[in-house]
What does this fold into?
Amino acid sequence: VQDIRAVFPNAGITTDVIAGFPEETEEEHQQTVAFVKQVGFSALHVFPYSERTGTAACRLKQVPKAVRLKRAAELIEVGNALKTDFMRRSLGQTYSVYAETEEDGFTVGYTPNYIKVYTKLNAGDMQPVSLQEIYKEGVIGK
It folds into this structure.
């Protein structure tokens, strides 16, 4: 990630995280939390572990479901904060955005580093857009 950011400082880097995998300790969970914060991912996709009958993991000692859900919720909160920080650092920058769909009176597209942008472009247009302010799960672009 450091090498990528040395070349592309505004790279959007995401990851998937499974919370509460069998035999995961609280210490290991906290190491995961610390790791995702240290890396500074632009977004996290978090899933609580769920058993799949017949898998090797299903035969291991299971983390209680309530603990899995609590750990997933903590990681989702961390991921939301990281995403907001990533978007905030991008405010004032200009990116080429392709207006794909319509939502809440806006057209919606994504920057090349995967920030959701709400614009007033016509659907199907691709234009430079300046990121102005945080809005919902993205930013307003003009």
Notes: The helical segments are 2-7, 26-39, 65-90.
